[in-house]
């Protein structure tokens, strides 16, 4: 999908059995289309989270970064964490969840989650730093074409500098066979 005339559109994208869709967000491209799984999955990411992980657990029955991380924590139906210190492999995913917080001014704020697919790891290990990995990612703003481009994973390092709690940080994930 890298470089194809596909539009970025937040909250879109799914696996298409024939061809590609017209628009995707990062989860639609990297989690659904790339691994040939439908985005809507009844029963996916259901169940209570371990203590301290509740702030982001807001998506069930659909695949996105939040539900993928929750699945890795609970049942590992589709996703699991890459053990810290293990070398990343092509096809591994770097992702962080959407974060919603109410700030001191009582106004809600939202930071949208993101996922990138490792194309070449250059011996980068789970836990980071991730900047040395070549990644493909689908990114905005809405309307951007091509939506899927190549780059490095420095965004994950920047995210982890800003968000250090386990429920908010960027994780290395692997799709369960």
How would you explain this protein's 3D organization?
This protein is of the alpha+beta class and 177 residues long. It has one domain. Helices cover 15% and strands 23% of the residues. It contains three helices and ten strands, in the order ββααβββββββαβ. The strands form three sheets. The chain has a six-stranded antiparallel beta sheet with strand order 3-10-4-7-8-9, sandwiched between helices. The protein has a two-stranded parallel sheet with strand order 1-2. It has a two-stranded antiparallel ribbon with strand order 5-6. Strand 5 and strand 6 form a beta hairpin. It is globular.
Tell me briefly what this model is:
This protein is of the alpha+beta class and 177 residues long.
Key traits:
177 residues; alpha+beta; 6-stranded antiparallel sheet; two-stranded parallel ribbon; 3 helices; 10 strands; 23% strand; globular
Report on the biggest sheet. Answer: 6 strands, antiparallel
Number of helices: 3
The tally of domains stands at 1
Q: Give the ordered list of helices and strands.
A: EEHHEEEEEEEHE
Roughly what fraction of the amino acids lie in strands? 15-25%
Biggest sheet, spatial arrangement of strands: 3-10-4-7-8-9
Number of strands: 10
**What best-fitting shape do the alpha-carbon axes yield?**
globular
Give start-end ranges of low-pLDDT stretches: none
Estimate the mean pLDDT confidence: 93
What distance lies between the first and last C-alpha atoms, to the nearest angstrom? 22 Å
* Share in helix: 10-25%
From the alpha-carbon coordinates, what is the Rg to the nearest angstrom?
A: 15 Å
Helix and strand composition category: alpha+beta
